[in-house]
Design a protein that fits this description.
There is one protein chain. It is built from 15 helices and 38 strands. With 797 residues, the protein is α+β, with helices and mostly antiparallel strands. The strands form nine sheets. It has an eight-stranded mixed beta sheet, sandwiched between helices. A five-stranded mixed beta sheet has the order 9-10-6-5-13, with no helix packed on it. The chain starts with 7 loop residues before the first helix and ends with a strand.
């Protein structure tokens, strides 16, 4: 996943525009310069501000001048090329490309320019609204923590006027007897103000901190430890770990868990998913020609490994003048004789060759012109061999792949609470299967001699899927490291030449049916099959995503899940998506949110034990609050459709360099030494989540709740707050009726805030009860039947 939400939207615009406007042949093929007249010129076009990469030659700059390109004043030389900003139309871009001048980056479009006036009007209205009432400041969290090599102070604060960039929040605290100050950064996402924050290293932990606003508001809070005190990582005397020693492809992963089951048949079994993947396979292809209007894209009917790779095509000019276009075959060899004119020159166009191949040899291949080109250029003689371009060794099967889970537990009959860990939805995230395998190894190999491990295995039903995306995983290991999606090509023929082969596939973590792009949520594409976040042709179109649905349908005892991704060191939960207006999926109730935070505290402490890695408070919380909208993600399906408490790991937290005072990213495929450390610490975390499930299974104690004030008579309106003995959901009524599970639930007050309060302006009877995550009901109340609920009346004069 992309790590920084604040540049995500611009990055998407850039890559999309560039991908559409500048389609090329296979990167290994250098196209010849074609005449401008061979490509269609589009009239009456919009303009964009772009950065051009210009060969550092007089001819290139002269051509820009001849074409009358509108240049800005910004220009510099980088990697032997001139980079210059220009205002251009799509036709001008096409013209420039013919002379080796390409768009490096699209900076702004005409539509964006036209939005500026409307944006200003909205900003003025917002400023007037926010400054009309008295400002208040609230400190959401003030924490200190020690991460690897330094101690940090982290603060989040919120102002009622915080959406204004002119509202400046300043922190003041005392450190070693000296007053320190820092300006907080405004945090926004999709146009919504979330909060202000800052984080910096300190030499002494302050006892308290004050936040002052430029508009006059202020607040003070004690500084507490993020994650609190934790025991050192000292497992049982004979506890064994460090079971992974190299990155493993999905074939190796399956063999690993199968061998584990052979060793521990009384404690584990393999669960085979019913929906086989498309497989690590492709049709063989070749692009015949080097210019767009002369190129022919040929695709084998058979998979490459089943005969497609043996096909060759020879294009040869007829030896006689006035000869017709014809085709012949000899086994898997195709011979195309190009037509000639009266002078003996080849005259067959790409379109004519395409039509001939489709009419005469469709049992062997299909053909198209290049990316929708008219194909009116003359085809040149040459010989081509088709290939599926796959490079994995023979040990990686080319057939549809069975996704497998390892099921661990003394009682694997559904009678115990279920826990699910699944990884590698995104193929390039090589560390994530190591987390899963390491965890499975620890659970089984420590069972006989470690009482804590035995406790978990005896009382839980644990499912672990190390690789959700085996096809993409194999492709990432052997063909294209940065592969994110699976390998299924849903593109049209005009987007299916081999130059696009690294962009095919579906993002499995955008293919689910809750908060999906098909329902209008942000964070995935339903139209661009080449997009890195392509959601597929429909919800659950992919066998890989259907497998997750099947597993949770078949095992309703699953109550907890962890979706393991990389990188960036995030720890998140639902909601995971929002609309263009930033309306999120329904937030958890205040009690459910409190449980997410409480369980997270335990899990994150376990991660920290390995080498001191702290998942930052700014990267902990609901997905839209700390990252970005991810329409159609799998965790939302599990939470909203199944009621499963589901978290998302982003392993690979940034490393703090104390010397340079900077954070260093680790990437999807760090050196294995770092990847191993990430696997160890996040295996700790996954086991921490499994322990949360164990505590859930043993919790038989009902929560207690109180309200402040405690009913009674009041002169004016009254604001009522709730307090519970543990994280618990409050169900309440205000009309005198008995509360039930269909009653109103106490909600959150706002983004990153605690529970709401209820305001009564007239006499009101409040009836309520609380329920904890383990479904224990306060006072043994039977909702809607007996009268063991809480009740308080607030009399307002």
């Amino acid at each position: 996943m992309i790590r920084n939400k604040r540049w995500l939207s611009s990055a998407i615009v850039i890559s999309t525009v560039a991908g559409i406007a500048f389609s090329t042949l296979d990167p290994a093929v250098t196209p010849k310069v074609a005449e401008a007249s061979s490509l269609k010129i589009q009239p009456a076009e919009s303009v964009s501000l772009v950065q051009l990469a210009v060969p550092n030659t007089k001819e290139a700059m002269k051509k820009i001048e001849e074409l009358g390109i509108d240049l800005t004043h910004r220009m510099h030389v980088h990697d032997g090329k001139i980079e210059v900003d220009a205002v251009v139309t799509p036709s001008e871009v096409t013209m420039l490309k013919l002379y080796g001048i390409r768009v490096k980056e699209t900076l702004i479009t005409e539509n964006q320019l036209n939005q500026r006036v409307a944006e200003r009007r909205m900003a003025v209205k917002q400023e007037q609204k926010l400054t009309a009432t008295e400002e208040t400041v609230k400190i959401l969290r003030a924490n200190h923590f020690t991460n690897q090599s330094d101690t940090f102070l982290y603060v989040e604060a919120k102002s009622t006027s915080g959406a204004l960039s002119s509202t400046i929040l300043t922190a003041r605290w005392t450190e070693n007897g000296e007053e320190k100050t820092a300006t907080l950064q405004q945090i926004q996402d999709a146009g919504e103000y979330l909060y202000h924050s800052f984080m910096l290293p300190v030499s002494q932990i302050p006892t308290d901190i004050t936040i002052e606003s430029s508009l006059g508001g202020s607040a003070t809070s004690k500084v507490t430890e993020w994650l609190g005190e934790e025991k050192p990582d000292k497992p049982g005397k004979h506890y064994v770990k460090n079971f992974v020693d190299h990155y493993m492809d999905p074939t190796e992963i399956n063999a690993r868990i199968e061998n584990l089951v052979k060793e521990y048949p009384e404690l584990a079994e393999i669960v085979e998913m019913p929906n086989k993947t498309n497989g690590y396979r492709r049709q063989a292809q070749a692009t015949l020609g080097t210019l767009q209007n002369t190129a022919v894209v040929v695709t084998s009917r058979d998979w490459g490994h089943e005969g497609g790779n043996a096909i060759s095509i020879e294009l040869k000019k007829a030896s006689a003048a006035g000869a017709p276009l014809s085709v012949g075959t000899s086994g898997s060899k195709i011979f195309v004789t190009l037509a000639t004119d009266a002078a003996g020159n080849a005259k067959s166009t790409a379109k004519e060759v395409v039509d001939l191949l489709n009419a005469e040899v469709s049992d062997l291949v299909s053909a198209t012109t290049y990316r929708g080109n008219a194909g009116n250029g003359i085809v040149e003689p040459a010989v081509y061999s088709l290939s599926d371009n796959l490079k994995a060794p023979a040990s990686v099967l080319r057939d549809p792949f069975t996704v497998k889970a390892i099921r661990i537990g003394k009682h694997r009959d559904g009678s115990k609470p279920g826990v699910l860990g699944y990884s590698q939805e995104h193929a390039r995230e090589w560390v994530t299967p190591l987390v899963s395998v390491e965890t499975a190894e620890r659970l089984l190999r420590n069972y006989s001699h470690d009482k804590e491990t035995k406790k978990l295995v005896d009382n839980l039903d644990i499912f672990i899927i190390p690789s959700m995306n085996p096809d993409g995983g194999h492709y990432s290991f052997y063909d294209f490291n940065s592969q994110r999606k699976n390998m299924t090509n849903h593109c049209s023929p005009t987007q299916s030449d081999n130059g696009y082969r690294n962009s095919w596939g579906v993002d499995l973590n955008r293919n689910h049916d809750v908060g999906s792009a098909f329902d209008g949520y942000v964070g995935a594409s339903t139209t661009n099959c080449l997009s890195g976040s392509y959601a597929g042709p429909s919800e659950h179109s992919e066998p890989e995503s259907r497998n997750l649905v099947w597993l949770t349908d078949e095992n309703p005892n699953i109550k907890f899940a962890m979706n393991i991704h990389s990188y960036g060191g995030y720890f998140m939960w639902s909601p995971g998506a929002y609309t263009p207006e930033r309306e999120t999926l329904p937030r958890p109730s205040a009690g459910e949110e409190a449980y997410y935070w409480q369980a997270s505290d335990h899990i994150l402490k376990e991660i920290k034990k390995h080498r001191g890695t702290v998942i930052l408070p700014s990267r902990t919380g609901p997905i839209p609050d700390v990252l970005y909208s991810a329409a159609g993600n799998s965790a939302d399906h599990l939470w909203y459709k199944k009621g499963i408490y589901t978290w998302n790991f982003e392993v690979g937290a940034d490393l703090w360099n104390k010397e340079t005072k900077s954070w260093e990213l680790v990437g999807f495929q760090p050196p294995f030494e770092e990847g191993h450390e990430e696997a160890m610490e996040f295996s700790n975390g996954l086991l921490g989540m499994i322990d949360v499930a164990y505590q859930y299974s043993k919790d038989k104690k009902a929560p207690k709740s109180t309200v402040t004030p405690n009913g009674g008579r009041h002169e004016d309106k009254v604001e009522v707050s709730f307090k519970t003995s543990e994280p618990a959901t409050i169900y309440y009524t205000l009309d005198g009726s008995r509360p039930t599970f269909d009653s109103q639930k106490l909600a959150l007050n706002g983004t990153r805030e605690g529970p709401e309060t209820l305001t009564f302006e007239k006499t009101t009877t409040l009836n309520w009860f609380s329920v904890d995550a383990s479904k224990n009901i306060e006072n043994r109340y039977d909702p809607g039947k007996n009268k063991k609920y809480n009740t308080k009346t607030f009399f307002i004069k």
